């Protein structure tokens, strides 16, 4: 039998060729093509391969420059430093190098499979053979299972040192599969930094892709500190964290010993002052604070300010975060896409949830007119939200925030924001939910003037007590479908806004567009809506009545088509300044009560009536309307009724 040796793997099959465990032939020359006759002696060697657990019979200190050394045996350095010449290539073939230090010269290569916790690398850093490093827990002394604080602290140190080392050796990807371990990240433990939890966390370096699997379970060592982080991307540019299951300590935390506050900042993942980073495919469970927090370093006006930029958080599952699922307090150009938020902020049997208690919170810190943090240009899309304690997604002080394509069980709130959009989301109310009863809060109830130029459109809202609350200026609410809500759209205060082209349906009850405890309502244009409800299509009460100038506070309701299944009128009570014109009203009329400066023009009331009530009505024009199916007018005023300048002209009664 003959074999042709054309590669290094076959070269070691012969006793007289190149053998790694022979101290006369340490390195492998270039392979040559040679025909050999397989003798019985060679055949026996092939059938009895080298045992990689046997000790090596050569020493690395005799290695020559420009050599390739195959490690298929145990090389025990006996706690010594071995100086290697230039251009050495250490190849793993089942063996190991342990208990010592390799001091490399330039232009060398080492197989990542040879690295372990007992081997130190010094000198000119060699390059890894493969930029993907596979972590094996048995080679790095990380202790799994329930351990004491010191062991869990050592686990963290070992993992951090490993990532720094393999990056220095040229790794771009670190893969961790089977691992179930606790990590002590408490600030102040063993004299660590007290108030910067990012410095005491597991720290992923820049330019590293950390890949974990469903077999990778990293756990927070239970502690008593209010502000901890399990894993951070801190000043880590061009980095990715992928996969794995992280567990917080919300149910095992000591909330009483240290500084008796709510301890609400025990976060699982922190992205801080990093650019071009991704957090994806992770499962984050029982965070003591947030599942993910994104923020900047320093204040927005300081010279050392570093924002989080170009951040992608995608396809993660965040379960029972004690505070928020995700918080964004500083950064720009951030995408939150395809995540699942479950039971954010809820109580468990062993720990209470804590405020805010939202699935996602955009909330930079402002105070006394100073913007300490800034959040701009965030896209929140294609996420699923279920079971949140207080609400779904909230934006307090972020600008240019877009919510789109989300599947919501709770609210989206855009408060103190500008140039933000809520579009094409679906809201389906869970009747057992304890969260806010309004699907979309559009604006800031306190009316501090931060809100403007926002838009709400293309959303589908089903089964909420209130569909949309409008509380800001320059808002455009359009092309929404609102089904089976108690009140579809309610205005609390607004000016220069539009409510248009919406479809509102509730066959069993409810009302269409109305107001709620209004402060003011100026220059609102309500048009081209289709409203089919059991109650009043429009209902407005106490709007601008105490104002002296009706021109400033005039509002228009026009070109809508409305139906009341229960023959309820649109109602306007104690109001100054509105036009109701060119509307088609089925099974519904209009009632005005204590109204001034109103025009009811060119409407079709099918099976409806125009009803004038109250004790004072003035300056009302009722002109060119068509009323069918009943009485045209019904004046049911009180005995002390005062009417002034009420004009009824060219109306048609059929």
From TrEMBL:
It comes from the Bacteria. InterPro entries: NosD_dom (IPR007742), PbH1 (IPR006626), Pectin_lyas_fold (IPR012334), Pectin_lyase_fold/virulence (IPR011050). Residues 366-531 form the Periplasmic copper-binding protein NosD beta helix domain. This is Periplasmic copper-binding protein NosD beta helix domain-containing protein. It comes from Algibacter amylolyticus.
């Amino acid at each position: 039998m003959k074999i042709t040796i054309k590669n290094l793997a076959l070269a070691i099959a012969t006793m007289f060729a190149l053998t790694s465990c022979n101290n006369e032939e340490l390195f492998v020359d270039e392979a040559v093509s040679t025909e050999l006759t397989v003798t019985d002696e060679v055949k026996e060697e092939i059938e009895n391969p080298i045992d990689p657990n046997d000790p090596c019979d050569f020493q690395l200190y005799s290695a020559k420059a420009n050599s390739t050394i195959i490690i298929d045996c145990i090389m025990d350095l006996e706690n010594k430093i071995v100086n290697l010449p230039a251009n050495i290539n250490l190849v793993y073939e089942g063996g190991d190098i342990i208990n010592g230090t390799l001091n490399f010269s330039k232009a060398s290569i080492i197989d990542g499979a040879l690295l372990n916790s007992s081997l130190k690398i010094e000198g000119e850093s060699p390059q890894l053979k493969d930029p993907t490093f596979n972590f094996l827990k048995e080679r790095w002394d990380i202790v799994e299972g329930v351990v004491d604080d010191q062991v869990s602290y050592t686990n963290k140190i070992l993992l951090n040192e490993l990532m720094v080392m393999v990056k220095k050796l040229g790794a771009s990807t670190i893969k961790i599969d089977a691992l179930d371990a606790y990590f002590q990240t408490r600030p102040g433990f063993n004299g660590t930094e007290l108030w910067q939890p990012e410095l005491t966390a597991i720290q992923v370096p820049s330019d590293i892709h950390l890949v974990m699997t469903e077999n990778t379970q990293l756990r927070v060592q239970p502690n008593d500190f209010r502000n901890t982080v399990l894993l951070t991307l801190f000043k880590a540019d061009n980095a990715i964290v992928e996969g794995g299951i992280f567990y917080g300590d919300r149910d095992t935390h000591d909330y009483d010993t240290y500084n008796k506050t709510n301890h609400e900042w025990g976060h699982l993942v922190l992205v801080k002052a990093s650019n071009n980073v991704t957090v994806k495919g992770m499962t984050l469970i029982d965070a003591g604070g947030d599942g993910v927090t994104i923020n900047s370093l320093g204040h927005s006006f300081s010279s050392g300010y570093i924002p989080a930029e170009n951040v992608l958080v995608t396809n993660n599952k965040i379960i029972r975060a004690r505070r928020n699922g995700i918080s964004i307090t500083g950064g720009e150009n951030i995408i939150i896409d395809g995540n699942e938020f479950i039971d954010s902020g809820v109580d468990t049997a062993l720990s209470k949830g804590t405020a805010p208690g939202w699935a996602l919170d955009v909330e930079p810190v402002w105070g006394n007119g100073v913007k300490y943090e800034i959040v701009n240009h965030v896209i929140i899309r294609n996420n699923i939200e279920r079971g949140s304690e207080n609400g779904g997604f909230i934006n307090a002080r972020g600008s240019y925030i877009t919510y789109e394509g989300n599947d919501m069980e709770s609210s989206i709130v855009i408060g103190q924001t500008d140039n933000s959009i809520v579009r094409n989301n679906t809201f389906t109310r869970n009747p057992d939910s304890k969260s806010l009863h309004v699907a979309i809060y559009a604006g800031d109830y306190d009316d501090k003037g931060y809100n403007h130029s926002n838009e709400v459109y293309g959303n589908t809202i089903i089964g909420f007590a209130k569909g949309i609350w409008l509380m800001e200026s320059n808002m455009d609410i359009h092309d929404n479908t609102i089904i089976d809500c108690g009140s579809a759209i309610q205005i609390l205060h607004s000016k220069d806004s539009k409510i248009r082209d919406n479809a509102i349906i509730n066959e069993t009850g409810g009302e269409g567009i109305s107001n709620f405890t209004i402060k003011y309502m100026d220059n609102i244009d309500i048009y081209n809506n289709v409203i089919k409800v059991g109650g009043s299509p429009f209902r407005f009460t106490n709007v601008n009545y105490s104002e002296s100038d009706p021109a400033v506070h005039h509002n228009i309701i026009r070109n809508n088509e409305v139906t009341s299944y229960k023959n309820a009128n649109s109602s306007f009570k104690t109001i100054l300044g509105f036009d109701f014109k060119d509307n088609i009203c089925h099974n519904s009329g209009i009632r005005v009560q204590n109204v001034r400066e109103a025009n009811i023009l060119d409407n079709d009331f099918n099976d409806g009536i125009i009803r004038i009530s109250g004790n004072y009505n003035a300056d009302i024009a009722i002109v060119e309307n068509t009323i069918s199916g009943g009485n045209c007018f019904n004046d049911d005023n009180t005995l002390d009724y005062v009417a002034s300048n009420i004009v009824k002209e060219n109306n048609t009664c059929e």
